[in-house]
Write a structure and sequence with these properties.
Distance between the termini: 98 Å
Strand content: 5-15%
CATH topology of the largest domain: Rossmann fold
Helix content: 40-55%
Largest sheet: 4 strands, parallel
Number of helices: 18
CATH class of the largest domain: Alpha Beta
Radius of gyration: 35 Å
Length: 518
C-alpha cells in the first residue's frame, strides 16, 4: 500500500422504516465504497448497525467503530457515512462524536452532504444533524399523538395481555377480543382471589391445575400471577403513561373485584423483605408481629454477652423507633403463648359452633354431590360431541369452516363446565372427624403451637390473625381475629372482646381490643 494512501472506515445503519425509504444496508455500503474509491481511500474496516435507532449513541456498531478509530495503531484518517442521520439523529450526540473525532484528527465525510472541517462544512454538519433531530422529534410527536388518540377511543396500542387476542380487521384496524379458552379461567381465578381464600402461590397452583398456560405454552409462574392480579386491564381500564382510559375491550371482572384483589397484596417494605427472607426456625415470630410503637415488623438477632455466650432477642427493625428496646425470645414467645390462650374459644362455644358447621356442611355436601353428578354428565356429553365432530371432519363429512365454528362452541362449553366442576368438587372424607380434629387443635392452641414446624406456625398466624398482632412491649394487642376466634363471645350473645364494633373508630391511638396478659 502506498504510504500516502489514506485509511478510512465505513459506517452504515438502517432501521425498519429506513429500509422502506430506500436506505438499505447494501445501498449505503455501495455508495460509501464508491466514494472511498473515487477519493483514493483504503477502506480498513466496515461497521454497521441493523435495525438500530439513531436516537442514542448506544449502538454496538457505532461504539465498536469509535473504539477502532481511537486506537492509534489503526491509523484511521476518515469515517465515511452515506448521510449524517445514519450516524446520529441527536444534535448533542453528533456534537460529542464530532468533538471526539476532531481530537483524534479523524475527518468525517458524507457521500451526499457537503460537510467538512472548514467553517461552511461545520455549519452544514450541524444543520444536517439538527434537521435529522427535527425529523425524529416530529415523528415521535406524531406517534405520541396517535397513541393518545388510540387510548382516548378506548383502544389499546399494545399487544393483548393473556386472556385476550389481537384481532386484525385490516390495515391499522386491530381490536382486542376475548381468548375463548384462557379468559374464562382467568376470570375465575381473579374472582376467587378477591374472596381472600387463596394466597398467590395457591392461586398459581390452581391456575396450572385448570390448564392455564402462558402464550408460550409454559406453566404459569409467580411473576405472571402477580401481573394478572395487578393489571387493571381485566377490569376494563387501560393504564399508560398518559393516564387511565376506559377501554372498549370486554372486561373480565368488575372494578370492585380489582380493588379487592389489590387489598390482598402484602404491602411490603425493605424491612419486610429482609425479615421475610430469613427462615431461621430459632425465631418463629420474626416478621409475624408488629411493633406497637412504629408499626414496623419485629426482626430478631443474637446478642453476645461478656463471656461470649449468645442470647436470642426480638427487636424492632426500624432503627429510629422510639421503643429502642430488645425483647428476649423467651419473654416475647411466652407472652404470645398467653395471648393465644386468651383468644382461644371455650369448649362450650366450640361445641355450639361445631354443630352449626356440621349442619351446614351436610346440606351443602348433598347439594354439591347432586350438582357434581349433573355437571359430570354434561362434560361427558360434550366430550362425546367433540369426538364426533373430529370424526366427521376426518371423514370429510363436515366442511372446515363449519367444523371450526361448531368445534369452538363445544370447546367453549366444555371449558365452562370444567370450571364449574372445579368449583363444586367435593371431598371424600368424614367431616365430623375432620371438624373434631380441627376444633381439638383450636381448643388447645397454646399447647400445640410449640410442637408445630416453622412454616406451620406461619400458616397458623395467617389463619388466626388477618392482621399481624401488635406487641406494645408490655402485652400483645390484636385489632382483628378470624371468625372462629371471634365466636368466643359472639355465640354467647355478647360483643366480641377482641374486635371493635363495625364503624366505630378506636379511642386510643388505633390500638383497640387489647389481648391483656396481666
Amino acid at each position: 500500500m502506498n504510504s500516502n494512501t489514506k485509511s478510512a472506515v465505513i459506517y452504515y445503519r438502517v432501521s425498519t422504516a429506513d429500509q422502506v425509504d430506500g436506505f438499505s444496508l447494501d445501498n449505503q455500503k455501495e455508495a460509501c465504497q464508491r466514494y472511498a474509491d473515487d477519493k483514493g481511500f483504503n477502506v480498513a474496516k466496515l461497521f454497521s448497525d441493523e435495525g438500530e435507532s439513531a436516537k442514542t449513541a448506544d449502538r454496538p456498531g457505532l461504539q465498536a467503530m469509535l473504539k477502532f478509530v481511537a486506537d492509534k495503531k489503526n491509523k484511521i484518517n476518515c469515517i465515511i457515512v452515506n448521510k449524517i442521520d445514519r450516524l446520529s439523529r441527536n444534535v448533542n450526540d453528533y456534537s460529542a462524536i464530532k468533538g471526539l473525532l476532531d481530537k483524534l484528527g479523524v475527518e468525517l465525510v458524507s457521500t451526499t452532504e457537503a460537510i467538512g472541517n472548514n467553517s461552511f462544512g461545520k455549519f452544514m454538519g450541524n444543520m444536517m444533524a439538527s434537521i435529522a433531530q427535527l425529523d425524529n422529534d416530529v415523528r415521535s410527536e406524531r406517534v405520541s399523538d396517535g397513541i393518545l388518540k388510540c387510548l382516548q377511543s378506548g383502544r389499546s396500542p399494545h399487544h393483548a395481555p393473556l386472556g385476550y387476542l389481537n384481532q386484525n380487521h385490516g390495515k391499522r384496524d386491530i381490536s382486542i377480543v376475548l381468548d375463548p379458552e384462557r379468559s374464562k379461567i382467568i376470570k375465575y381465578l381473579l374472582e376467587e382471589f378477591s374472596k381472600g381464600i387463596y394466597t398467590q402461590q395457591e392461586l398459581r397452583h390452581k391456575a396450572n391445575q385448570l390448564g392455564l398456560r402462558s402464550k408460550n405454552g409454559k406453566e404459569i409462574g409467580t411473576q405472571l400471577i402477580h401481573k394478572l392480579l395487578a393489571s387493571k386491564f381485566y377490569a376494563g381500564i387501560i393504564v399508560s403513561k398518559y393516564g387511565e382510559f376506559k377501554g372498549n375491550h370486554p372486561a373480565l371482572i368488575s372494578l370492585e373485584t380489582y380493588y379487592k384483589n389489590q387489598k390482598q397484596f402484602p404491602k411490603t417494605t425493605k424491612g419486610d423483605y429482609i425479615a421475610g427472607s430469613r427462615t431461621d426456625e430459632t425465631f418463629p415470630l420474626r416478621h409475624q408481629v408488629d411493633c406497637g410503637m412504629c408499626g414496623r415488623p419485629l426482626t430478631a438477632c443474637f446478642s453476645r454477652g461478656k463471656l461470649g455466650k449468645q442470647y436470642p432477642y426480638y427487636r424492632c427493625y426500624q432503627k429510629a423507633c422510639p421503643s429502642k428496646k430488645a425483647i428476649s425470645k423467651k419473654t416475647l414467645e411466652h407472652e404470645f403463648s398467653k395471648c393465644l390462650k386468651k383468644v382461644t374459644p371455650t369448649k362450650e362455644v366450640l361445641s355450639t359452633f361445631k354443630k352449626v358447621i356440621l349442619d351446614v356442611w351436610q346440606n351443602r355436601f348433598d347439594e354439591l354431590n347432586q350438582k357434581q353428578e349433573v355437571t359430570n354428565k354434561q362434560i361427558e356429553n360434550l366430550t362425546a360431541e367433540k369426538a364426533k365432530l373430529l370424526d366427521l371432519v376426518k371423514k370429510n363429512l363436515l366442511p372446515d369452516e363449519d367444523f371450526k365454528t361448531e368445534y369452538g362452541k363445544v370447546k367453549e362449553q366444555l371449558t365452562d363446565k370444567q370450571l364449574e366442576l372445579s368449583e363444586i368438587k367435593t371431598l371424600d372424607f368424614n367431616p365430623a372427624a375432620s371438624v373434631d380434629f380441627v376444633f381439638d387443635f383450636v381448643a388447645n392452641l397454646n399447647k400445640f403451637w410449640p410442637k408445630t414446624t416453622y412454616w406451620q406456625k406461619h400458616k397458623l398466624m395467617g389463619l388466626i390473625f388477618p392482621k399481624k398482632p401488635i406487641y406494645d412491649y408490655t402485652k400483645f394487642t390484636t385489632p382483628k381475629l378470624s371468625h372462629i376466634f371471634q365466636a368466643k363471645t359472639a355465640l354467647a350473645g355478647g360483643v366480641p372482646a377482641l374486635v371493635g364494633w363495625a364503624g366505630i373508630e378506636p379511642a386510643t391511638n388505633g390500638l383497640k381490643g387489647r389481648c391483656s396478659t396481666d
